[in-house]
Amino acid sequence: MPNNNNIGWNFDETYTNLPSMFYSTAKLDPATNPTIVFFNDSLAKELGLDANVLQADDGVNTLAGNSLPNNSMPIAQAYAGHQFGNFTMLGDGRAIMLGEQLTPDEKRYDIQFKGSGRTAYSRGGDGFAAIGPMLREYIMSEAMHGLNIPTTRSLAVIKSDDPVYRDDVLSRGILTRVAKSHLRVGTFQYALAYGDVADVQALADYAINRHYPDFKNTSTQYADFLRKVVKQQAYLVAKWQLVGFIHGVMNTDNMTISGETIDYGPCAFMNSFAPNTVFSSIDHQGRYAYGNQPAIANWNVARFAETLLPLLDSDQDKAVEIAKEIISSFQMYFSNAWLAGMRSKLGLFTTKETDNDLISELVRAMEKYQADYNDTFLALTRDTLEGEVLFQSEEFNTWYQRWQTRLQEENKSSDEVVRLMRSSNPALIPRNHLVERALTDAVEHDNYDFMNYLLSALKNPFAHSQAQAEFEKIPVPQTPYQTYCGT
Ligand code: AMP
Ligand code: MG
Q1: Distance CA 84, CA 411 (A)
Q2: Domain count, the chain
């Protein structure tokens, strides 16, 4: 095997110190004739990797799974989870961990390949991914990062000549996913269901040490850990709601302990404001609809709390009391974060009791007049009230006067208000028609120009640049959009 240490790999395994039930060793399925179709230069740099070497032959072979970095011991991680409410054993069925990369600024990131072949947890699946869904994850995750929303990242997408059999024969893709860790609520559920309390404790200690070391070895460490995860999830979902992001599969295995957004399957951004918006083709009940996301996150962290009960107190009743109190705080963390975000979107620097009403009134009117969620805030930011029926309505006019009065109470210059609004309301989100166009060009015509252009504009969605303005026109009428748990 070629020596590819000049790439800058700096692996340091800690996950494999956990009991062996938490992983299985894995073998990467070689890719035929791999080419690199997307590469994230700035992320490579953050990771301490040499972007040039990584994009040359040896590097591409590593990203394709054809040669292993030094010190890499590929593994698949075990986890379980509630999928649409039903508990099942899962695990990395088409993902393989290469190692934990220590970066020059001493951060630790999992380097994982998605679509790299079967593992011990593949069940009936082939372990592969098609190129389209991997490119989709690249776009969505990098867009989320640009929006300042915690997320796993995408380092590269490889395309190979191997066929992937779905409804059609597709090209194989491999995504390099980078994450603070891949610990999930489902990992804890797995520990409890298939191991014993010592396994849950080993996992909790590992997670605390890796993500929240401040709590380590304190008398309240497990309660503090639970509260922190609850808080991080509440903040994360508040951020999703504020930009109209719909995850689509908020199963407990797709919820991280680190607070990063993970698993970009059928996710999409909402256009017209409607809380019951669902894009996923398999979500018939609307379980993961936009408006349900906070309640589902709350449900998921309650499942997480259940796994920690034996660690919270040796007296079960006491443990339940502690867990209940912490879980019930989710709503408060969420509301506070959401309201704070909404205030910024409306250019408000201070907090007033009446703000809740002001915000609710706008939201109600947006829903009634089916206003485009992001464009409404963009129009308010620019004070160009055009293009939405909402703006002609009496409700909106009354609200607008109220908002103006509220703004005047702030004693801020209009420049300051606009600056806050511009940094809180994205000029560009990866709208469905843009993502589809990028994917069609890339997958069907091998043309990556539009995707490149879109990705560069998504890097800083708060720039309000000329290039971003070019993406603004939304096709009318909006055709019903469906996304798939694309594999
Ligand atoms: P997801 O919907 O991506 O969260 O995946 C749910 C479960 O199915 C996880 O355990 C995945 O690893 C597994 N899975 C998804 N696609 C495949 C595939 N093509 N081959 C094997 N396992 C898969
Ligand atoms: Mg998943």
Answers
A1: 48
A2: 3
CB 303 within 8 A of CB 217: no
Identify whether 8 is part of a domain: no
The pLDDT of residue 320 is above 60? yes
State which ligand 1 atom lies nearest to the alpha carbon of 253.
Answer: 4
Q: Which of 125, 144, 179 is the last residue of a domain?
A: 179
**Claim to verify: residue 367 and residue 477 sit in the same structural domain:** yes
pLDDT confidence bin for 316, thresholds 50/70/90:
very high
At 481 the pLDDT is 79
List, chain by chain if needed, residues with CB within 6 Å of any ligand 1 atom.
90-94, 121-122, 125-128, 249, 253-254, 263, 265, 485, 487
> Across the chain, what does the average pLDDT equal?
96
Contact status, residue 478 vs residue 373, Cβ threshold 8 Å: no
Do 447 and 487 have their domain in common?
no
Distance CA 95, CA 254 (A): 13
Instruction: Report how far apart, in Å, the C-alpha atoms of 103 and of each of 2, 8, 41, 56, 450 are.
Output: 23, 9, 15, 21, 31
Ligand 1 pocket mutation pick from 79, 88, 89, 90 by most atoms within 8 angstroms of CB:
90
pTM, entire model: 0.97
Residue 315 burial (CB count, 10 A):
10
Neighbours of 107 (CB within 10 A): 12
Distance CA 170, CA 443 (A): 9
Beta bridge partners, 283, equal: none
Q: Estimate to the nearest angstrom the gap between the alpha carbon of 250 and the chain centroid.
A: 10
Choose the residue to mutate in 94, 126, 140, 182 for probing ligand 1, maximizing ligand atoms within 8 Å of C-beta: 94
Domain boundary among 130, 159, 179: 179
Residues of the domain holding 47: 15-179
Residue 7 domain-assigned?
no
Q: Looking at ligand 1, which residue's alpha carbon is closest to its atom 22?
A: 93
Whether residue 90 sits in one domain with residue 205: no
* CB crowding 230-256: b at 16 or more within 10 Å, else e: bbbbbbbbbbbbbbbbbbbbbbbbbbb
305 & 271 share domain: yes
Same domain, 312 and 386: yes
Q: Which atom of ligand 1 is nearest to the CA of 126?
A: 20
Reported as a single tens digit per residue, the pLDDT across 95-128 is: 999 999 999 999 999 999 999 999 999 999 999 9
Q: Is the pLDDT of residue 2 over 80?
A: no
